[in-house]
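sry for the spam today, last one i promise. struct tokens for design, 382 residues
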């Protein structure tokens, strides 16, 4: 008999996104659970990919990413954030933001290191920390607006703290960190060796005239941060899995040591197509208005329901609080909505390590107007 090794992640099962999407498919429900658009990417981008494939750009890309794309990332970063990273020493193209997150954590977190997570948080952070031998330290954000409790954060910092992970705009809550919070974080880490990982994949989805402030714009953070973004979010191409990391040269060197043994490189014709399409500055500049219109429509349509909501400040997710409708655990309620009214969402307890339940469900509004109207018609019947 073969004695298989014990699991390295014994308490980890299939992600909640896959679970709820499968349930949506089973019941032919409207899927507002997993964060992907139900509309296509720009036609010009598809034409560019096709052209590069037909021209023979189908072999390995350089490990750090195609030079053309890294240079365009550098130029765009300067346009948007006023900082121009060195494309050769500070920019790395990855196979999606998830690989970037994993590579950054694997690069610097050693056994016994503590990494601070602000909950609720994206579900890939903690497993990557644990696989590196690190210890996740969970610090809850304060509800209902999910802001940082700075006193609690300070109390959890120790001599073993290696990294603090931030995410703005924030998945799942839609909260946006103000500049003052990033400046506080810079002051808090000043004089320490604590690193920052700043997950900024929803950087172009900030609403109501607010601005997304990047860690790259705060000198005290930029020199200690891995800043991660995603073309999948920006160009409606989540299935392409192309992301990138901007980090100081010393951190980039360590990141690439991991990246080369995880995926080595990302898809060549996709990189070249994106590099060309990045000249279309109007696309990413228009995203705040584009997604705010969808947020506003969804919120207006759901307003007659018994759900309680605060309009999302960023991302393409909206939280709905349901305690006026049911006292069920959010996972049970989410499953029942999928099965009975045909609308799939994600329970926010899935973003807490201990499944803390505040009676919130997360809905993705990166959908067509028709999809949002159909979903809202069903939600207001509750």
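last one done:
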């Amino acid at each position: 008999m073969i004695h298989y090794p014990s699991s390295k992640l014994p308490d980890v099962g299939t992600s909640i996104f896959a679970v709820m999407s499968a349930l949506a498919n089973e019941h032919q429900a409207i899927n507002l659970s997993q964060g992907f658009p139900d509309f296509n990417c720009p036609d010009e981008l598809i034409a560019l990919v096709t052209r590069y494939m037909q021209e023979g750009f189908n072999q390995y890309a350089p490990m750090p990413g195609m030079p053309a794309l890294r240079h365009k990332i550098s130029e765009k970063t300067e346009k948007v954030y006023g900082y121009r990273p060195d494309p050769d020493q500070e920019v790395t193209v990855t196979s999606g933001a998830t690989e970037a997150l994993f590579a950054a954590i694997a690069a610097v977190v050693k056994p016994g290191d503590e990494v601070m997570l602000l909950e609720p948080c994206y579900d890939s952070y903690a497993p990557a920390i644990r696989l590196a031998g690190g210890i996740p330290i969970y610090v809850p954000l304060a509800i209902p607006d999910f802001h940082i409790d700075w006193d609690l954060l300070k109390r959890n910092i120790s001599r073993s703290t290696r990294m603090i992970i931030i995410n703005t705009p924030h998945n799942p809550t839609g909260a946006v960190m103000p500049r003052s919070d990033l400046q506080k974080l810079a002051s808090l880490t000043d004089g320490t060796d604590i690193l920052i990982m700043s997950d900024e994949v929803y950087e172009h989805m900030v609403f109501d005239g607010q601005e997304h402030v990047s860690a790259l714009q705060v000198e005290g953070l930029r020199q200690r941060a891995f800043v991660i973004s995603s073309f999948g979010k920006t160009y409606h191409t989540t299935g392409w899995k192309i992301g990138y990391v901007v980090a100081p040269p010393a951190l980039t060197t360590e990141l690439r040591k991991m990246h080369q043994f995880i995926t080595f490189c990302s898809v060549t014709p996709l990189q070249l197509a994106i590099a060309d399409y990045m000249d279309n500055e109007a696309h990413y500049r228009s995203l705040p208005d584009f997604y705010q219109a969808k947020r506003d429509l969804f919120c207006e349509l759901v307003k007659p329901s018994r759900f309680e909501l605060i309009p999302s400040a960023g991302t393409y997710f909206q939280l709905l609080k349901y305690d006026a409708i049911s006292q069920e655990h959010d996972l049970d309620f989410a499953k029942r909505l999928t099965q009975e009214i045909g609308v799939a969402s994600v329970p926010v307890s899935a973003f807490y390590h201990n499944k803390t339940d505040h009676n919130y469900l997360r809905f993705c509004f990166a959908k067509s107007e028709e999809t949002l109207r159909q979903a809202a018609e069903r939600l207001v019947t509750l």
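The first strand starts at residue 30 and ends at 31. ok im logging off now
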